[in-house]
Amino acid sequence: MVDLKPAEMRVIDDAFQMHEGYVLNFFDRTFAEYFDAEFGINIYDEKYAFNGTSKAKRLRAFIKAEDEYTVSIVLRKLWEYAEGLPKREPNSWEPMVVEKDVKTPLFDLLNRIEGGGALPRTDALERFKADETLEELISAIERDIQANKPAAALDRLHTYCMKKFAHLLEKRGESCTREDPLHSRFGKYIKAVEKEHVLRDISKLVMKSSISIFERFNQVRNNESFAHDNDLVDKAEARFIFDTITAILRFIKTTEAESFGV
After folding, report:
1. Does 93 score more than 60 pLDDT?
2. Counting beta carbons within 10 angstroms of the beta carbon of residue 207, is it exposed (0 to 12), middle (13 to 18) or buried (19 or more)?
3. Which of 74, 87, 89, 9 is nearest to 43 (CA)?
4. Residue 228 belongs to what domain range?
C-alpha cells in the first residue's frame, strides 16, 4: 500500500491534471481501456471506489490500495502517455500554458515511493557469477551513479542487462546467441518464467509490456549514450530510464529468489 501525504498527492494531481475529477484527456471508457490494455487492471473494480467514482478519485484509490512496485510502474507509464499528448487545453485549440515544472517533483516522488533517495538505487544489480568483467561493469555503474551521472551509466547498464538475461536463460537451458538483442533475450526469459510458475495477471502484463521498454533502451544505448559519439540524454530523463530499468530488474531479482532461493 502506498500512503501519500496530501502534498505528495498534489504532485500527482498536478502531473496528471487530476483536478475536478479528470485524469489527463481520458474519458470513462478510454480510461478503462487504457488500464486494461496496458496493465490488465480493471480500474472500475469496486476496490478502487472507496474514495468516489470519478477518474481522479479512482486513480487516488488505486495508488492507496496497491503496492509500491505496481503504483510506480503505472505512474511511470502514465507519464509516458502524458508526454505524448498535444500540449493544448482540453476542448481548445489554444496552446496549453504550463505554469510550473511537474516532471521533476513527480520523478522525485516516484523515487521515494520505490525507496530511493537522492541518488538512484543500484541494489538490483547482482554479481550473479564469478566474472571479473561483471564485477568491473557493476562497479563502473555504481561510480557513475555516486557521481550523479545517470546518463553515463546507461551504456553499462545495457551491457549488464545483456549479460544478466543471457545468464538467466543459460541457467534454464534456453538458447541465447550474441546476436540476440536485449528485448529478445527478455522476451525469451518471460516465456521461460511462465512455464515455471504462475505470475499474477498484473505482474505478467507489466513484464510483457516491458519488452517494448527494453527495445527502446536498445535505441537509447545506441543513439544517446557513451556507446558511440552521441549527444547524451538529459539528466532527468536518464534518471527516469535508469530507475525504470532497475525497477524491472529488482522485481526479477525477487522472483528469482522465490523460485531458486538465490
Report:
1. no
2. buried
3. 74
4. 120-260
